[in-house]
């Protein structure tokens, strides 16, 4: 996963802006791209293909144990 891209995506956005973060690192870029394009999201759960929303970059980094 490219943390720098997620940091870049977070810049200038409110803390409540959700990120798509995938359990499989190899899927992360595709789902983040799909989220930005407004595609690939399940409206019922706000997730796509095993991904879940992360509302703070701190939580994302913590999850990755970096």
Give me the secondary-structure topology.
Elements: H1 3-10, E1 19-22, H2 25-36, E2 51-54, H3 57-64
Antiparallel strand pairs: 1-2
Classify the helix fraction into a percent range: 40-55%
Q: How far is the first residue's CA from the last residue's CA? A: 12 Å
Helix-strand pattern: HEHEH
The number of helical segments is 3
Structure notes:
The protein has helices spanning 3-10, 25-36, 57-64; strands at 19-22, 51-54. The chain is α+β, with helices and mostly antiparallel strands and 66 residues long. It is built from three helices and two strands; from the N terminus they run αβαβα. The chain has one domain. A two-stranded antiparallel ribbon has the order 1-2.
Structure summarized in a few sentences:
The protein has 66 residues and is α+β, with helices and mostly antiparallel strands. The chain has three helices and two strands; from the N terminus they run H-E-H-E-H.
């Amino acid at each position: 996963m490219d943390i720098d891209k997620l940091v870049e995506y977070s810049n200038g956005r409110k803390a409540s802006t959700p990120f798509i973060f995938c359990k499989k690192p190899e899927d992360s870029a595709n789902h983040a791209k799909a989220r930005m394009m407004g595609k690939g999201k399940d409206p019922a759960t706000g997730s796509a293909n095993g991904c879940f929303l992360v509302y703070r970059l701190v939580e994302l980094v913590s999850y990755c144990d970096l």
